Amino acid sequence: MIQVPQVATIAGIDSSGGAGVNADLKTFHQERVYAASIITGVTAQNTLGVQGIQPIDTQIIAQQFQAVFEDLEIKAVKTGALFDAERVEAVVAGLKRYPVYHLVVDPVMVAKGGATLLEPLAIQKVKTSLFPLAELITPNLAEAETLLGRQLTQSETIEAAALELQAMGPKNVLIKGGHFAGTEVSDVLLTADGDFHWYTSPRIDTVRTHGTGDTLAAYITAKLAQGQALTTIMPQAKAFMQAAIGESIAVGHGHGPLNHWVAG
Ligand SMILES: Nc1ncnc2c1ncn2[C@@H]1O[C@H](COP(=O)(O)OP(=O)(O)OP(=O)(O)O)[C@@H](O)[C@H]1O
Ligand SMILES: Cc1ncc(COP(=O)(O)O)c(N)n1
């Protein structure tokens, strides 16, 4: 029998297949890890926006945790859209019952089209209950600003922000720069030892970026499950993102999905 690293995503479904659980599962499959999914909510959305959201009952979230963790050997977990405080509490309870070392928390707050994927009241719970469990958190710039309640405009203030986010409990912090203006995209990783690592790539001029954050966090989760270190993973992750965004596929009429078939 072939042994395969097993991971789980805890996130919402995107009916159009580009973001959320759908992006995670495609990335995991491409990177050759076996993936389970614990669904927190269902969205009616496409590349033009989110038309509806139905969070999943917390009882069935708890049952999904039990079903997955009492059978599979889950090495790494990624969280995505959690929608509200009740769902955050259910997920934190599940992660406390079934702890994993490799926990990647993508604090998804707002979809590309502007829809809220985490109610403002739930943000404090994410900071105080979920972040301390995480090996890595991956806010984008806008999410980092919301988490800290101020604007981040320069690399020094972004490094200071990463330190402040690390003080909330996660071992490592990755602030993503996809939302920064300019011809380059820079992400900064603050590692547990206090070092900063900047990763810069040319900005691809496209609106076809539906699910970029999910895909990056899922890629990192897959590689953590395979035993790689964050600083080894990041250059590969950036190359994967560059290809998955650059070699775009013709799907939908708005913020199109990525090409998860690219080599990575
Ligand atoms: N136009 C682009 N060109 C090249 N790389 C990009 C581009 N947009 C995003 N990226 C890369 O994709 C990854 C995800 O970053 P981004 O800031 O878009 O995350 P995000 O906002 O959380 O994504 P999402 O909106 O899907 O939740 C990062 O590594 C970032 O550098
Ligand atoms: C269910 C779900 N999870 C996450 C996202 C974020 O992705 P994006 O910011 O690219 O819309 C999304 N749109 N939908």
UniProtKB/TrEMBL annotation:
- Documented EC number(s): 2.7.1.49, 2.7.4.7
From which lineage does this chain's organism come?
Bacteria, Bacillati, Bacillota, Bacilli, Lactobacillales
The record's catalysed reaction(s) read:
4-amino-5-hydroxymethyl-2-methylpyrimidine + ATP = 4-amino-2-methyl-5-(phosphooxymethyl)pyrimidine + ADP + H(+); 4-amino-2-methyl-5-(phosphooxymethyl)pyrimidine + ATP = 4-amino-2-methyl-5-(diphosphooxymethyl)pyrimidine + ADP
Query: What PANTHER family does UniProt report for this protein, alphabetically?
Result: HYDROXYMETHYLPYRIMIDINE_PHOSPHOMETHYLPYRIMIDINE KINASE THI20-RELATED (PTHR20858:SF17), PHOSPHOMETHYLPYRIMIDINE KINASE (PTHR20858)
Gene3D superfamilies reported in the protein's UniProt record: 3.40.1190.20
An example GO BP is:
thiamine biosynthetic process
Q: GO CC: one term?
A: cytosol
- Family from the record: Belongs to the ThiD family.
* Protein name as annotated: Hydroxymethylpyrimidine/phosphomethylpyrimidine kinase
GO MF annotation, one: hydroxymethylpyrimidine kinase activity
Describe the location of the Pyridoxamine kinase/Phosphomethylpyrimidine kinase domain by residue ranges. 14-259
Tell me the keywords, alphabetical order: ATP-binding, Kinase, Nucleotide-binding, Thiamine biosynthesis, Transferase
Keyword field contains Ubl conjugation: no
Pathway field of the UniProt record reads: Cofactor biosynthesis; thiamine diphosphate biosynthesis; 4-amino-2-methyl-5-diphosphomethylpyrimidine from 5-amino-1-(5-phospho-D-ribosyl)imidazole: step 2/3; Cofactor biosynthesis; thiamine diphosphate biosynthesis; 4-amino-2-methyl-5-diphosphomethylpyrimidine from 5-amino-1-(5-phospho-D-ribosyl)imidazole: step 3/3
